[in-house]
Here is the input.
Amino acid sequence: MANTIDFDSVRKLSGGALDGDAERNYSADFPSVRDQVSAEEWKARCDLAACYRLVDLYDMTYLIYNHITVRVPGTDEFLINLYGLTYKEITASSLAKVDLDGNVTWKPEGTDYGINSAGYVIHSAIHRARRDVGSVIHTHSTAGMAVSAMTAGLLPLTQNSMRFNGRIGYHDFEGPALSPDEQQRLVGDLGDSNAMILRNHGLLTCGPGIPEAFNTLYQLETSCRAQVAALAAGPDAVTAPPQDVIDLTAKVFDPKGIRTYGRLEWPAMLRKVEAETRNNGYPYYAS
Ligand SMILES: [Zn+2]
Here is the structure.
């Protein structure tokens, strides 16, 4: 069954800024809002901007497309990228705020950039259904798309991928726009996992916060890259350990087990962003 899409409402929600009209304000220079928001929101803004930069640094971007969202602490509003900026350009102050229905409740003054409402629907469906989720990341990386098109899905070929054994959802492709019905199926397919392969589409991870969601994305992306590389040798040339070893590995890396992966790593990730993006010609991420 094919979903339908209301193009007029998408244009309206996107602030009408879909055509690249030269007379509109498409400046990528945004004044700081640090003094206008709570300390908690500023931290969420800096972490989210850093996460966009990390997804770029690890080569998981797709021009101006895709989204990473984070809940503004204590609210039902979410921070999201303006539609039109590359991830290298995203700063803490450039992030728009949206509610669960995709209404833009705040965006930088004077800008004609809006948000990509159609893309946000995947995120809002999960934020609405999973109160334990603070952040959602969706990518169209080459390796992620490649594995999403494989009949077998993610294979337990590496230690990285074994952590997802029994802990990853699959959602069949139904077209680029999500109907309310499909949103239910998407949420059902994710279940209580924090990772999902959108078949013939890409990858999705989530977590209580950005540190956990980014770490899961990194593990999933590297698993997919390794699988694509290994399968280039042919399906008969690869091997996987016995099921009990796969199960043990998944247990060791259970985020509810020994530790929640991502939190110890996050300060190091911030140092990486700091070192690799300071003075690189793009705006400072935490500005
Ligand atoms: Zn997508």
About this structure: The radius of gyration is 19 Å. Strands lie at 68-71, 77-80, 96-99, 104-106, 135-139, 169-171, 195-198, 202-207. The chain has one domain: 37-277.
